[in-house]
Write a structure and sequence with these properties.
Radius of gyration: 25 Å
Order of helices and strands: HHHHHHHHHHHH
Shape: globular
Structural class: mainly alpha
Strand content: under 5%
Length: 286
């Protein structure tokens, strides 16, 4: 006698490993999604519902100047950081591991030093009576002190120093993954050092450069302490403006709109970097 078996109705099952991810997802929602949504709501509801805060930011020449300064400083800092970090990263990639570990430790140690302390140190070094100007004048290089503070020069120097480790770290990993025999083969084929750098080393290191440049550029967009102390009022950046709007003027709507625009620009740059680097890796692997 055959016994009919009935299948129990299918029940919903959590994906494998989801329970382990649940605490992290809750933290992301509470500390990222909820604040961003609250920021967006304030930007379109205060002082009155509408998009007038965004219209003010994008239509006023004063705010446009702040946006321009912010992107100019971030671009200059990123470019200078790449130029300084690349030879340092290459040196760390090819030197003996024992010596590279010591230098690498010094670079990492600089990241643990208090940011405010490092910025004040640059204020002392860059001022008109600071060590740099006095040394240059004593050596006869200059006749009068150079304006190295309260301008774009001071901001660039201070921020490049702070951003260097964030550019060196991804570059070192990328450069160490490049087979040295590739460069030797290029030299045996008659390529000059510059040709080997331009056609082999630089293209292979582009993923590291892109990752580090994106990190430096995004961090520079939202930096506050260093531009506020080393820059002047004519070089105000977006983070300083947001702080003034919220802390001094209590204009939460306009400040929230400026912060949300900065967030959107950051996410757009990140998506663009992922697309460009992803396409390059796919084309390189074909």
């Amino acid at each position: 006698m055959s016994v009919e078996t009935r299948q129990s109705p299918s029940t919903f099952r959590m994906p494998a490993g989801f329970n382990g991810l649940l605490p992290a997802l809750i933290l992301i929602v509470l500390f990222f999604v909820v604040p961003v949504v609250a920021l967006l709501l304030r930007s379109v509801t205060e002082p009155a519902p509408g998009l007038q805060n965004y219209a003010t930011l994008l239509g006023d020449s004063t705010y446009a100047r702040v946006f321009f300064n912010t992107f100019l400083v971030a671009a200059v800092v990123t470019a200078v950081t790449v130029l300084v970090a690349f030879p340092v990263a290459w040196m760390l990639a090819i030197m003996p591991s024992a010596l590279a570990s010591i230098i690498f430790g010094v670079i990492i140690l600089s990241m643990w030093t208090n940011l405010l302390t490092r910025t004040y140190a640059w204020m002392v070094l860059l001022q008109r009576t600071g060590v740099i100007n006095r040394t240059l004048m004593a050596a006869g290089v200059i006749d009068q002190p150079l304006p190295l503070i309260n301008n774009l020069t001071g901001v660039t120097i201070g921020m490049v120093y702070i951003m260097l480790p964030f550019m060196i770290l991804p570059l070192v990993g990328t450069l160490r993954a490049i087979d040295p025999m590739t460069l030797r083969a290029a030299a045996l084929c008659g390529a000059s050092p510059f040709q080997a750098f331009r056609r082999i080393l630089l293209p292979l290191s582009l993923p590291g450069i892109a990752a580090g440049a994106l990190m430096v550029f995004v961090m520079s967009l939202g930096y506050f302490v260093t531009p506020a102390l080393l820059g002047g009022t004519s070089n105000m950046m977006l983070a300083e403006m947001i702080a003034q709007m919220i802390q001094s003027l209590l204009n939460w709507g306009l400040g929230s709109a400026a912060a949300f625009i900065l967030l959107v620009v950051t996410m757009a740059l990140y998506a663009l970097q992922l697309r460009l680097v992803g396409v390059r890796r796919m084309s390189g692997g074909v």
